Amino acid sequence: MYAQMVKSTGEGLKSREDMSPEEAAFQDKIDADIKIEPKDWMPEGYRKTLIRQIGQHAHSEIVGQLPEGNWITRAPTLERKAILLAKVQDEAGHGLYLYCAAETLGVSRDDLTEQLLDGRMKYSSIFNYPTLNWADMGAVGWLVDGAAIMNQVPLQRTSFGPYSRAMIRICKEESFHQRQGYDIMMKMAQGSEAQKRMAQDALNRLWFPSLMMFGPSDADSVHSVQSMAWKIKMDSNDELRQRFVDQTVPQAEYLGLTVPDESLKWNDEKGGYDFSEPDWDEFFDVIKGNGPCNVDRLAARNKAWDDGAWVREGLLAHAEKRAARKTAAE
Amino acid sequence: MSKEWPLWEIFIRGQHGLSHRHVGSLHAPDAEMAIKNARDVYTRRNEGQSIWAVEAKHISASSPSDKGPLYEPSESKVYRHPTFFDIPEDVGAM
Amino acid sequence: MSGLSKSVLYDFCLRMGDNTLILGHRVSEWCGHAPVLEEDIALANTALDLIGQTQFWLGLAADVQGEGKSADDLAFLRDAWDFRNGLLCELPNGDFGQTLMRQYLFDEWHWAMLTALQNSSEKRVSDIADKAVKEASYHLERSRDTVIGLGDGTAESHDRMQAALDYLYPYVGEFFEADTVDEAAAKEGIAPVLESLREGYDAAIKATMDAATLRLPDSRFAHKGGRNGRMHTEHLGHLLTNMQWLQRAYPGASW
Fold first, then answer.
1. Which of C28, C32, C35 minimises the CB distance to A312?
2. Domain of C70, in residue numbers
3. Beta strand B7-13 with B50-55: parallel, antiparallel or unpaired?
4. Could you tell me how far CA A276 lies from the centroid of its own chain?
5. What tens digit of pLDDT does each residue of B35-68 get?
6. DSSP result, B16-64
7. Is C131 buried (19+), middle (13-18) or exposed (0-12) by CB count in 10 A?
8. Number of domains chain C is built from
9. pLDDT value of residue A223
10. C255 within domain boundaries
11. CA C138 to CA A239: how far, in whole Å?
12. How far apart are the C-alpha atoms of C184 and C101, rounded to whole Å?
């Protein structure tokens, strides 16, 4: 998802008997759906895992501005331009809410940013794919935001209060994102031959990377078991992926587009589609930095950060001067 | 690494006479910019609202508890509302 | 409405709408690349407002023209020589300081202009101005504070802002030099006499630059040619190449 393969403590789940009294009380609260707030006691592993997860989620929103930002200046109508700009702006907002949620855990936004920029922290693999034609703006909204929503809706119930509140706000805004994407896809799929070709091309390129967003199967992952016990992960990767495919395939059919998977078939018995796994070697290559756009994306974020240093310093220096003048006058 | 802008907690009073409530936080060099940033980040420009910005370090807290704030997007930007897009029912939930 | 009045109103709307279109486009180029998230979001709001105003101005221009065209037709299917924005709006973003200085120099004029247009004899114009002036007044507040903050910030931010002002100031004068269209618009009460806005503008930017510890250039030399389309900068063509590409490459398609 936007946070992929987040490692927890790696120690696996503790049994009740092995828990300290604080740990047991903490787990009781979570089991009773009582939110954990920043000043409450929490295990160090919970705090660290959350920082990694929320940070990665925030980074994904910020890097996620770039593939769609790529088309803002080329949007084909004034209304499309405004809608796309508003959407990419929302992503900056979502990143901001999430960084703030992470900050309540005792890490600064600048610190998280530095970790993104020097590669210590990751962001979602999906944003390392390029946006090559206008229908990609449709497909990103429809598929990428659609996949994100699959994960984010349950996360509104996550155990950590600030994270949950950020997700509630984000989900409320996110629904417009998916719908504007599908709206573009409908126009394209019902448009000229060239537009239909763009739409199919976008689906062809983005289908499997979208499935990768949920991460590899985590049925046997100790990290996932712990995260689910802590309610910072609500569903398994495979469950979410299946739900996404089941929801999306009929939408593709409605558009008259072909999902690029010859094995795709309805399975009556399980009440869902059978489908091909994405190429996980490709996924791990992208995670390692070898996706089509990794270098460009990080370079763009580094440039924005470095070029902006004098602005951040200048405005802060002015604020300090003003405060000093005010004190002197009193 | 250069110094980070301070963190501010933002409180907004909506249009229905309710008292200010916490909507989130942001960074800004000073109080005035915090209020301007809050307007851009947290109200998307609805008029008739009042914003408070308090530097986070000045807040004393017992045990925080407040529910997620829900804000209406600016009225003139209808496309921010999901219902702006007419999605056929056959397509399913979105 | 007489043929002459129609053509004056049409030209006037193009000048207003092309300013907001081209500047809004420039500001939107920042999305995802600003120095800090809060500024990224604020710049996008400014761009969204300007694009929204463009829809009104170019929509009115298309109505007045009466050839069944839309605001999009005017935005995406005219060539550079038919654009009527001030040259200032089409200049490249440069660094963040140059972008904010350009914004401030424009906002100060835009706000004064829109304030005056609230009294326009043409109701469709005053209606647009009523809505746009609120947005412009916020843009102005924000760009003015940022120019002051960066001018009176660090030595580096000061020098960058001074360089931005020196580069951009020669593009200010164009907004106050009336031609026959402006004179006719003023005579019919559609728009104010342009020169009448200059005194207030000069006083305002002087006060801002003083607070920002920046020095206004002595020369009042003014580059011109955008508002009448006689001679744009080379930058406009590249901007249009980007902006109009899809509409040009796939004529008649619906998006």
1. C35
2. 3-249
3. antiparallel
4. 23
5. 999 999 998 656 457 899 999 999 887 754 443 3
6. TSPPPEEEEEEE-SSHHHHHHHHIIIIITT-SS-EEEEEEGGG---SS-
7. middle
8. 1
9. 79
10. no
11. 47
12. 31
Cβ of C173: how many Cβ atoms within 10 Å? 17
User: Which residue of C38, C47, C148 is in closest CB contact with A85?
Assistant: C47
3-state secondary structure of C85: coil
The complex's ipTM works out to 0.96
Taking only the tens place, the pLDDT of each residue in C106-131 is: 999 999 999 999 999 999 999 999 99
How many whole angstroms separate alpha carbon C214 and alpha carbon C148?
9
Please, are residues C56 and C131 in contact by the beta-carbon 8 Å criterion? Answer: yes
Residue C48 placed within a domain: yes
Nearest Cα residue in chain B from C44: B40
Q: Does B26 touch chain A (CB under 8 A)?
A: yes
For residue C58, the domain's CATH number is 1.20.1260.10
Domains of chain B: 1-57 (3.10.20.520)
Nearest CA-CA distance, residue B79 and chain A, Å: 6
How far does B29 lie from chain C, in Å, by closest CA? Answer: 10
Report yes or no: A123 at the C interface, CB cutoff 8 Å: no
* d(C-alpha C225, C-alpha C227), whole Å: 6
H helix runs in C29-122, sequence order: 37-65, 71-76, 87-90, 96-117
